[in-house]
Amino acid sequence: MATCKKCGASIIWIKTMKGKSMPCDSVLIAYKADRAGKDTIVTPNGETIRCRLTFDGDATGVGYISHWSTCPNAEDFRRAEK
Ligand SMILES: [Zn+2]
Q1: CA of 24 to the centre of ligand 1 (A)
Q2: Residue 80's pLDDT is what?
Q3: Do the beta carbons of residue 24 and residue 38 sit within 8 Å?
């Protein structure tokens, strides 16, 4: 478990299939795989899946959402990436 340097949220680093480490919210959330979905989720084994988040019980799995989409200071992240 790690902490976001920007907002103090607890995050975990997940290594994606592409070999990149990605900061994600430490909370597992349910998703439904959907090619047209507006969200992207990372599964615990590092697969990134286009999906939409669901609370309706029709989830196809659970995964982590990129902290970049939830961090209030995400802009700082993007700058730091360069
Ligand atoms: Zn943050």
Answers
A1: 9
A2: 60
A3: no
